[in-house]
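Progress against Task 2.4 (sequence-to-structure conversion) is shown through the following example record, which the project officer requested during the mid-term review.
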Amino acid sequence: MPTILLVEDVEDVNIILARMLRRLGHSTQSAHSSAEASRILAKQQVDLLLTDICMPGGDGLDLIREVRSDRPNLPIVAMSGGAPKRPIDLTISQARKAGANATLLKPIERAELAEMIGALLGRKLQDTKIDQS
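Structure tokens generated for the chain above:
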């Protein structure tokens, strides 16, 4: 069962997304900040990172850059519902430039999330099989 690290600072959204991911057949680890996510990543192997971009006390963009530097092959999905003084299209564009493989706009639809994660994890599994040959 793939493990997804979910980074979302809003508790209710974190709970809803974690439940959605479990119903899609994934194991989840939840973090409420980029610092907490970094601590989890230092101790645990995950198959995909799903992170909010705009969070207090640590930007999701910095987390994406850090993860991309440390784990270049880890699939990353960045999500955003926008933030004051930060246009959503610019935020999404910055996430792509920072190294996110894919982006989602909140509110997130279950089918869209399932398709995106399936595609990214499927690609990772295919790459792993190629590397083992």
